[in-house]
Every structure is written in structure tokens, then in C-alpha cells.
Design brief:
The complex is a heterodimer of chains A (362) and B (66). With 362 residues, chain A is mainly alpha-helical. Chain A has one domain. Helices cover 67% and strands 1% of the residues of chain A. Chain A has a two-stranded antiparallel ribbon with strand order 1-2. In chain A, α6 packs parallel to α14, α11 runs parallel beside α14 and α12 crosses α13. Chain A starts with a helix and ends with a helix. Chain B has 66 residues and is of the alpha+beta class. Chain B has one domain: Translation Initiation Factor IF3 (2-Layer Sandwich). Helices cover 33% and strands 33% of the residues of chain B. A 4-stranded mixed beta sheet of chain B has the order 1-2-4-3, with helices on one face. Chain B is globular, with a radius of gyration of 10 Å. The chains are: A mainly alpha (362), B alpha+beta (66). At the A-B interface, β2, α9 and α15 of A face β1, α1 and α2 of B.
């Protein structure tokens, strides 16, 4: 009985999130980008001046809302606890390269669903790559991959990222001169819903994602490993709800070409998302889940979020990010390096071990 | 007894899965977070076991029995 409730909960949450995501695009966010954790962390990095790509600079309230929403939900349910210490630098690097993959494809796994729901068939190549990447990660998991344990940390540790989000929100409201915002018509960074709507949407998604443990990479992973469909149902519910909402609001345009903030290079859409799926399985969760867990006090996830942001800044400072015109040569090299590095992290934490790991000891 | 405290998803469930291959009637799993607590419970129930959860100073002890 409880099991059924569980599944119903995540389906309802997924449906609400799908409607909100498609609705945000209608309220001013870029098309098929009601939510995109990668794009929004990238825009935020730009807003803070960590990169100087003028079209993609804006402090996205959705990100702030997700972290604070998750923080509030975890706090209310007494699930907030400061934890960390499980391979922070490895997680930073995995976050960094997950972002390289996201910006090759132009979207995180969440936006991949929204792109599919908007009729952007390029995302099908992304989905194939994503699934392949998850399989790569599962290969290592099955062979004993582990980043070892987290431990309880001082209480303050878990509050740092949520507090940083509040500070960033103040910067968004006050708009001091050192903050960068894309100018009207400059690109995706200039397209956004009103601050209140974006923040509210983020808060709701943060609360729902925290309560249901929603994770885009966990869906396929758990289905393959344990035949557990719960998270995958959440993934599918978002897809269905966003698709229907797009149909109603006129946001559905099927095809490959002229899709918003997307390119048509199938191979690199696929390889980009392969890198994302692979890195996220080794991290234990998709970028959305990392945001939520950092709201729950997980300092390792907070470090991963910083890795994602630094990765985004690198991508735009060194021309690694794709654009509507397609991938860049440097971006392709970066994705290949990323796949190699993530594979090495997999090998090192699976086969090269100086002591018995928790998994083996069990 | 499986000690899965502090491990990321999906390690706690994988460790439980591995342990339960021996098909005994009783297992104990220790986790330190609500998410793996739910996930391990769900997995054990799907394998036809009953699960009792006891909270122990921030950790959760799961008693899994036939």
C-alpha cells in the first residue's frame, strides 16, 4: 500500500514540475528551458562575472529557489544534516566535466526532457547518449566503484551553500554595478520570467524534488540495477506534463532544425550527454539532485555544484560551449578529455584501492 | 549486518542486494540518511521481506526479516 503511495507521489510531483517548467518558458524563459540546471548555473556564473559571454549572464532565481526549497523541506522534516568528506575533489572534477557535457548538448538531463517535450528531436540523440553514459557508470558500480563514506561535519558546513544562494539573490535584487546581466536581445540570458515567478517555481520544484528524491539519472539507473521504476516514473511524468502543457500553450514544434537553443549535430549531442550520464552515475545523482542535496546540508554536493559552475565558466571563457550553430572544435576535444577523465576516475575508484572499501567489506 | 552509512546512491541498495543473495531470514542494514533508508526498505519489501526501522542517534537501523 505504502509502495503505491510512493509511486503516486512522484508521479504527481513530476506532473506539477512538468507543468511549471513548460509554464516558465511561456512566462519568459528561453523556449524548452523552463528549467535547465546546467544553463542556469552557467547564467549565474556569468552574472557573477566568472565568465564574460555576454549572451548568457543572469542570476537565475530558479536555482536559488531549488536550493532554498530543498533546504526548507529538509529542515521541516528534520532531514537536514551537515555531511561531507566523500572524495570532494573527485566530485568537483566530475561536476566540472558533467557541465562540459551539458554545454556540448546545451542542457542538463532535466532540459533534455523539456526539449523532448517541446518536439526538439535532437534531444533523442542526447537521450541515447545519456542512457549509454548511465550504462558506463553502472559497469563501474557493479564492479565495486565507490567514493567512500561521508561523515558528519560541523553544523555550519551545511548552511554555507544555502546562505550563498540567499546572498546571490540579494545581488539579483540590488543589481550592484559588478553584476552582469545580458542585455535585451543579446541571447538566452536576457530571456527570463519575472523574478517572483522564477523564484516561486524554483521553491516548489525544490520542495517536491526533496520530498520525492527525484533524480533524472537515478531513474534509468535504478530501473537497470534493481528493476525499481519509481524515479523513472517521475522522469516520465515530467515529460508527459510538459508535453501536454506545451501543446496547450503552443510551445510544441516538432523537428530537428530551428529548435531553440539547440544544434543538430547528432553525434556530439549524443557524446555530450554520454559524458553527463557517466559522470552523474559516478556522482550518485543528476545536477538537479546535487542542488537538492546541497540544500539538505550535503557539502559534497555543494562542492559538486561549485564544480558545475566552474566548469560552466571554463566552457564560456575557452569557447568549449556549443551554440545554435553547433559544437566548437575545442568543445569536442573537451568532451573527449572529459570521457577519458571520468573513465579514469571510475577505474581508480573501482580497481585501484589501498584498503578494503565499504562495499567489499559488506 | 550491512553498514552503508555515508555512502552515495545507489551503494546502500546495492550492498543490501549483494548481502541478500545468501537468502537468509534476517538482515540488519545501517544507514545515516532518510533517502537510503527508504530505498533499502523499498528494495527489501520488493524481495518479500518485512522491514522495521529504528532511529538511533541520527542513523537508521533497518531490521529486515521474512
Amino acid at each position: 500500500m505504502e509502495k503505491k503511495n510512493d509511486k503516486l507521489m512522484i508521479i504527481i510531483a513530476g506532473l506539477i514540475i512538468g507543468v511549471i517548467a513548460a509554464g516558465l518558458a511561456f512566462l519568459g524563459n528561453p523556449k524548452n528551458m523552463g528549467f535547465c540546471i546546467a544553463c542556469f548555473l552557467r547564467d549565474t556564473a556569468g552574472g557573477l562575472g566568472l565568465h564574460r559571454a555576454a549572451p548568457v549572464q543572469y542570476i537565475r532565481p530558479e536555482i536559488i529557489g531549488i536550493v532554498i526549497g530543498a533546504f526548507c523541506a529538509a529542515f521541516a522534516k528534520k532531514e537536514f544534516s551537515s555531511k561531507g568528506g566523500s572524495a570532494p575533489m573527485t566530485r568537483f572534477v566530475l561536476g566540472f566535466f558533467a557541465m562540459v557535457g551539458c554545454l556540448m548538448f546545451l542542457g542538463c538531463p532535466f532540459r533534455m526532457i523539456l526539449r523532448l517535450a517541446g518536439g526538439d528531436w535532437n534531444a533523442i540523440f542526447g537521450l541515447v547518449g545519456f542512457a549509454a553514459g548511465i550504462l558506463c557508470g553502472i559497469f563501474f558500480l557493479k564492479n565495486g566503484y565507490s567514493l567512500k563514506r561521508t561523515y558528519s561535519l560541523t553544523k555550519a558546513e551545511g548552511y554555507i551553500l544555502p546562505i550563498m544562494e540567499v546572498v546571490i539573490f540579494v545581488l539579483l535584487l540590488v543589481k550592484p554595478a559588478f553584476i552582469f546581466f545580458s542585455e535585451e536581445g543579446a541571447g538566452p540570458g536576457a530571456m527570463h520570467a519575472a523574478i517572483g515567478a522564477s523564484l516561486a517555481a524554483g521553491l516548489v520544484v525544490g520542495v517536491l524534488a526533496q520530498r520525492t528524491r527525484l533524480c533524472m539519472v537515478g531513474g534509468m539507473r535504478d530501473m537497470i540495477l534493481f528493476k525499481e521504476s519509481r524515479l523513472l516514473l517521475g522522469f516520465l511524468a515530467i515529460l508527459v506534463a510538459a508535453f501536454v502543457t506545451n501543446l496547450i500553450l503552443g510551445g510544441f514544434h516538432a523537428g530537428f532544425t530551428e529548435q531553440p537553443v539547440a544544434h543538430t549535430d547528432g553525434l556530439w549531442n549524443c557524446l555530450g550527454m554520454l559524458l553527463v550520464g557517466f559522470a552523474c552515475v559516478l556522482l550518485g545523482g543528476c545536477p538537479l539532485r546535487q542542488l537538492v542535496m546541497s540544500g539538505e546540508g550535503n557539502a559534497d554536493s555543494a562542492v559538486t555544484v561549485l564544480g558545475l559552475m566552474v566548469g560552466a565558466a571554463f566552457c564560456h571563457n575557452f569557447g568549449l560551449a556549443s551554440s545554435g550553430e553547433g559544437p566548437t572544435p575545442a568543445g569536442k576535444i573537451a568532451v573527449i578529455i572529459g570521457i577519458v577523465v571520468v573513465a579514469l576516475i571510475g577505474v581508480v575508484n573501482t580497481y585501484v584501492k589501498d584498503e578494503k572499501t565499504a562495499a567489499e567489506a559488506a | 549486518m550491512v553498514d552503508a552509512r555515508g555512502l552515495s546512491c545507489p551503494m546502500p541498495v546495492m550492498m543490501t542486494q549483494k548481502a541478500m543473495k545468501s537468502k537468509e531470514d534476517y538482515y540488519e542494514v545501517l544507514v545515516d540518511n532518510k533517502t537510503p533508508c527508504e530505498n533499502v526498505t523499498r528494495y527489501a519489501q520488493s524481495q518479500g521481506y518485512n522491514v522495521e526501522v529504528e532511529e538511533k542517534g541520527g542513523d537508521y537501523l533497518l531490521r529486515i526479516s521474512k
